[in-house]
Amino acid sequence: MPFAQMQYIEIEQDNFETEMFNYQNWISSSLIPCFFDDDLQPPRKRNQEEDAPTRILNASTLGKYVGKVINLIRHKFPHHPDYAGLKSDEVPAWWSRDRKSFETECSDSHRRMAGSEYFVGQMETRPLYSDNIFIGYDGGKGQLHKDWQGSDHFHAAN
């Protein structure tokens, strides 16, 4: 059912926690690709990437998604008892209590399911700029330093 059609009766009393628990179980046992489309499918690969594995969302990112759903429900049903007495940036006690175990379950599940078609984690990293020059901190003395290529640079104190 679309979120817009959700009714309060579905989450009244402790049904909210139960529904979110079921949602978390589904998420933790699913391989959700990064940059997924509306059908939770990975983006279309370019020719040179056809054999490349699909990167899936890691546990902490999935935890953030669950948090966003909890906030969406808060905006739709602000008077739910699970939000009583909470500040605008606080979450229900059950989510604070369960988030770490949810993320652990996601990590464990992904480790079991990931293989040659999927991988969890960061893409290969590369420098933001290929010509970065590091000029060491001189404590404000304005001393001459050598960069990693051996060129002289003057670091002026302000």
Task: State the gist of this model.
The protein is mostly helical. It folds into 2 domains: 118 residues, no CATH class; 29 residues, no CATH class. The strands form 2 sheets. Strands 1-2 form a two-stranded parallel ribbon. Strands 3-4 form a two-stranded antiparallel ribbon.
Strand order of the largest sheet: 1-2
What is the share of helical residues? 25-40%
- Strand-residue proportion: 5-15%
Mean pLDDT: 80
Number of helices: 3
Structural class: mainly alpha
Q: What is the N-to-C order of secondary-structure elements (H for helix, E for strand)? A: HEHHEEE
Oligomeric composition of the shown chains: single chain
**How many E strands?**
4
Number of domains: 2
The low-confidence runs, each spanning 5 or more residues with pLDDT under 50, are: 147-158
* First-last Cα distance: 61 Å
Provide structural commentary.
It is a single chain. The chain is mainly alpha-helical. 34% of the residues lie in helices and 8% in strands. The chain contains three helices and four strands. The strands form two sheets. It has a two-stranded parallel ribbon with strand order 1-2. A two-stranded antiparallel ribbon has the order 3-4. Helix 1 (15-28) packs antiparallel against helix 2 (59-76), helix 1 (15-28) runs parallel beside helix 3 and helix 2 runs antiparallel to helix 3 (93-113). The chain is elongated, with a radius of gyration of 23 Å.
